[in-house]
Amino acid sequence: MAKGVDFIIKVGDKVLGGQRGGTLNRTAEMIDTTTKSSAGWKENEASYKEWSIASDGLLVETDEAFTLLETAYMNGEKVMVELSTAAGNKYSGEALITDFPIEAPYDDSATYSVTLQGTGPLTKTVA
Q1: How far apart, in whole angstroms, are the C-alpha atoms of residue 19 and residue 32?
Q2: Where do runs of H (alpha helix) occur along 8-125?
Q3: pLDDT beyond 80 at 6
Q4: CA 14 to CA 57: how far, in whole Å?
Q5: Residue 66 maps to which CATH number?
Q6: 59 burial class (0-12, 13-18, 19+ CB within 10 angstroms)?
Q7: How far apart (Å, rounded) are the C-alpha atoms in residues 51 and 121?
Q8: What is the pLDDT of residues 28-75, one digit of tens each?
Q9: Which of 7, 43, 112, 118 sits in a 20 to 30 Å window from 72, CA-based?
Q10: Which structural domain, as residue segments, surrounds residue 117?
Q11: Helices (DSSP H) in 5-123: which residue ranges?
Protein backbone atom coordinates (compact mmCIF):
# COMPACT_ATOMS: atom_id res chain seq x y z
CA MET A 1 0.00 0.00 0.00
CA ALA A 2 1.33 3.42 -0.97
CA LYS A 3 1.73 6.13 1.66
CA GLY A 4 1.36 9.82 0.84
CA VAL A 5 4.66 10.64 2.49
CA ASP A 6 6.40 8.75 -0.34
CA PHE A 7 4.95 10.98 -3.10
CA ILE A 8 7.42 13.70 -4.10
CA ILE A 9 6.88 16.79 -6.27
CA LYS A 10 9.73 18.29 -8.26
CA VAL A 11 9.94 21.63 -10.05
CA GLY A 12 12.47 21.22 -12.83
CA ASP A 13 14.99 18.91 -11.16
CA LYS A 14 14.53 20.36 -7.64
CA VAL A 15 12.49 18.61 -4.93
CA LEU A 16 9.81 20.92 -3.51
CA GLY A 17 11.02 21.47 0.06
CA GLY A 18 8.51 21.63 2.88
CA GLN A 19 5.93 19.70 0.82
CA ARG A 20 3.29 17.91 2.83
CA GLY A 21 0.31 17.11 0.64
CA GLY A 22 0.03 16.52 -3.06
CA THR A 23 -2.84 15.74 -5.43
CA LEU A 24 -2.69 14.74 -9.08
CA ASN A 25 -6.00 15.64 -10.74
CA ARG A 26 -6.88 14.05 -14.10
CA THR A 27 -10.13 14.75 -15.95
CA ALA A 28 -11.62 14.17 -19.39
CA GLU A 29 -14.41 16.08 -21.08
CA MET A 30 -17.25 14.00 -22.46
CA ILE A 31 -18.97 14.28 -25.83
CA ASP A 32 -22.64 13.30 -25.74
CA THR A 33 -23.21 10.67 -28.46
CA THR A 34 -26.73 9.70 -27.39
CA THR A 35 -29.14 8.87 -30.22
CA LYS A 36 -32.67 7.54 -30.50
CA SER A 37 -31.21 4.04 -30.75
CA SER A 38 -29.49 4.40 -27.36
CA ALA A 39 -32.52 2.70 -25.75
CA GLY A 40 -32.96 5.46 -23.15
CA TRP A 41 -29.35 5.33 -21.97
CA LYS A 42 -27.01 8.27 -22.34
CA GLU A 43 -23.86 7.47 -24.34
CA ASN A 44 -20.56 9.36 -24.26
CA GLU A 45 -17.11 9.41 -25.81
CA ALA A 46 -13.99 10.83 -24.15
CA SER A 47 -12.75 14.13 -25.57
CA TYR A 48 -10.09 16.57 -24.33
CA LYS A 49 -8.15 15.61 -21.22
CA GLU A 50 -6.56 17.91 -18.68
CA TRP A 51 -4.49 17.58 -15.53
CA SER A 52 -3.24 19.57 -12.58
CA ILE A 53 -1.17 19.11 -9.46
CA ALA A 54 -2.12 20.72 -6.15
CA SER A 55 0.28 20.80 -3.22
CA ASP A 56 0.74 22.38 0.17
CA GLY A 57 3.52 22.50 2.69
CA LEU A 58 5.61 24.43 5.15
CA LEU A 59 6.97 27.69 3.79
CA VAL A 60 10.74 27.39 3.23
CA GLU A 61 11.58 30.63 1.41
CA THR A 62 15.18 29.57 0.74
CA ASP A 63 14.11 26.34 -1.00
CA GLU A 64 15.25 26.31 -4.64
CA ALA A 65 12.05 24.73 -5.98
CA PHE A 66 9.89 27.25 -4.09
CA THR A 67 11.98 30.07 -5.56
CA LEU A 68 11.49 28.61 -9.06
CA LEU A 69 7.71 28.55 -8.46
CA GLU A 70 7.68 32.15 -7.23
CA THR A 71 9.69 33.37 -10.21
CA ALA A 72 7.49 31.47 -12.67
CA TYR A 73 4.33 32.82 -11.01
CA MET A 74 5.56 36.42 -11.05
CA ASN A 75 6.58 36.17 -14.72
CA GLY A 76 3.66 34.05 -15.96
CA GLU A 77 6.06 31.34 -17.10
CA LYS A 78 5.54 27.60 -17.49
CA VAL A 79 7.37 25.19 -15.20
CA MET A 80 8.23 21.53 -15.69
CA VAL A 81 6.74 19.54 -12.81
CA GLU A 82 6.98 15.92 -11.80
CA LEU A 83 5.14 13.85 -9.23
CA SER A 84 6.85 10.59 -8.31
CA THR A 85 5.00 7.80 -6.53
CA ALA A 86 6.08 5.38 -3.82
CA ALA A 87 6.67 2.73 -6.52
CA GLY A 88 8.90 5.10 -8.49
CA ASN A 89 6.44 5.88 -11.29
CA LYS A 90 6.65 9.47 -12.52
CA TYR A 91 4.00 11.82 -13.90
CA SER A 92 5.41 14.92 -15.58
CA GLY A 93 4.54 17.82 -17.83
CA GLU A 94 4.57 21.59 -18.25
CA ALA A 95 2.26 23.63 -16.08
CA LEU A 96 1.22 27.18 -15.25
CA ILE A 97 0.63 28.32 -11.68
CA THR A 98 -3.02 29.27 -11.20
CA ASP A 99 -3.12 29.64 -7.41
CA PHE A 100 -0.23 30.30 -5.00
CA PRO A 101 -1.29 31.61 -1.56
CA ILE A 102 0.95 31.94 1.49
CA GLU A 103 -0.65 31.63 4.91
CA ALA A 104 1.00 33.11 7.99
CA PRO A 105 -1.17 32.45 11.06
CA TYR A 106 -0.26 34.18 14.30
CA ASP A 107 0.16 30.97 16.30
CA ASP A 108 1.35 28.38 13.77
CA SER A 109 3.87 27.69 11.02
CA ALA A 110 3.76 29.67 7.78
CA THR A 111 2.55 27.52 4.88
CA TYR A 112 1.99 27.69 1.13
CA SER A 113 -0.31 25.98 -1.30
CA VAL A 114 0.04 25.87 -5.06
CA THR A 115 -2.07 24.72 -7.99
CA LEU A 116 -0.20 23.84 -11.18
CA GLN A 117 -2.48 23.61 -14.22
CA GLY A 118 -1.07 21.34 -16.90
CA THR A 119 -0.61 22.75 -20.38
CA GLY A 120 -0.18 19.96 -22.86
CA PRO A 121 0.22 16.26 -22.20
CA LEU A 122 0.86 14.52 -18.90
CA THR A 123 3.50 11.83 -19.36
CA LYS A 124 3.71 8.72 -17.20
CA THR A 125 7.06 6.98 -16.86
CA VAL A 126 6.84 3.53 -15.26
CA ALA A 127 9.59 2.59 -12.81
Answers
A1: 40
A2: 64-75
A3: no
A4: 15
A5: 2.40.30.200
A6: middle
A7: 8
A8: 999 999 999 999 999 999 999 999 999 999 999 999 999 999 999 999
A9: 7
A10: 4-125
A11: 64-75
